[in-house]
Description:
The chain is of the alpha/beta class. It is built from 5 helices and 14 strands. The chain has one domain (2-267): Purple Acid Phosphatase, chain A, domain 2 (4-Layer Sandwich). It has a 6-stranded mixed beta sheet with strand order 1-14-2-3-4-5, covered by helices on one side. Strands 6-7-8-9-13-12 form a 6-stranded mixed beta sheet, with helices on one face.
Amino acid sequence: MLRLMWxxxxxxxxxxxxxxxxxxxxxxxxxxxxAVPGLTRQVRIVQLSDSHASAIDMRPSRLARVASIINxxxxxxxxxxxxxxxxxxxxxxxxxxxxxxxxxxxxxxxLGVFAVMGNHDDRFKTAAAMAAAHIRLLIGERADIGxxxxxxxxxxxxGSPAVEGMRKAIRRAPPGxxxxxxxxxxxxxxxxxQRPVLMIAGHxxxxxxxxxxxxxxxxxxYYTDHRRGFYREGRHMLVVSSGLGTxxxxxxxxxxxxxxxxxxxxxx
Length: 268
């Protein structure tokens, strides 16, 4: 019995070590090519989600390396989809929040770098940090970036104002251009109305741990509808990135860190 217990402990330690190593690797690129009705030219987007800065597994040096990896892909547009810190945002002061976001100041794209809030982010400290990094934070507002309108959604924790803000920004967008909605949580997909949109989201970590014949980590089982990848529901489309960082445990198993490269092409 004692021998069996030691075997279980050793197996658990080995699995944790493997998961920690996997979580530290450079992000893979999840590539999507999506035909968007009304789009007049190709636009290449790189999305980075859930960076979750921490002293354990997501130091500024690693974030700076990821920023250089993104820049090397020469995207037209860069989207940051929330959760820039780990744990309770009340425990991060303004300087720490600024340090978590500062590496993204190096990001460059001709159509701009835009961000939205995540559920781990403090509104005021994040807004100040984004301003210092020269990144535009969209909270329930719309930006005309040329080929399409970009709508940034507030975090779900703000409740109904986030949904109404999203709907209002979409409703007030002049006709004739596609709409791309940027949100942290993919659940906003269910609150879209009639006008067709493409939504880009994160939040789920893809489950963070996925084991054959078992599935995702139990604490993330409630993210089953849109865990990661591309979805089409009626007139709407959705891309969910499994993101870069970790939560609760600094490990990834079966769900490697990723950035998403989303190439939009004219469609009918």
